[in-house]
Amino acid sequence: MTRALAALLAGLLGMAGAAQAQRLLHAGTFWAALERPGGLCEAVSRAELIAPPGSPQARASIAFSRDRKRRGELHFLAARAFRPGAAAVLTVGDQEFLLVTRGQSAWSRGPAQEAAIIAAIRRSAEMRLRGQGVGGRISDRYLLGGAPTAIDAAALACAG
């Protein structure tokens, strides 16, 4: 296991806190798939830029649930809050998507947009989330190596 992969997994597995059990479904180059308590499965990654100690790590997740209420729900947690009322723009390859924001979070606008984003992720090498944050611009880059396999592993784990 490379140091980069080990650091990614340590950060991802620690996201939900020590009290929650989670199962690693897949570990790829920059993405992993996790099964979390309560019937939630996620493909997850962190932004390329590592947050300084004591600061939140920007991360992305694509969630699926056993009850099928989540079927590829895209969520970003930025390192700091978005400016109230500001939108975020996600660029995947050459496609841009306008996301909804609140606090430090940005979400896809619904199932049709989620499907289009996942399709773009499957054929791209990177994506970037940009927006106006409290105290300056937010620009988080995510590498997509291993993302398709992590997405498939999360979807499959919660499909059954």
UniProtKB/TrEMBL annotation:
Q: Where is the signal peptide?
A: 1-21
Alphabetized UniProt keyword annotations: Signal
| The protein's name in its UniProt record | Uncharacterized protein
From what organism does this protein derive? Sphingomonas humi
Native organism taxonomy: Bacteria, Pseudomonadati, Pseudomonadota, Alphaproteobacteria, Sphingomonadales
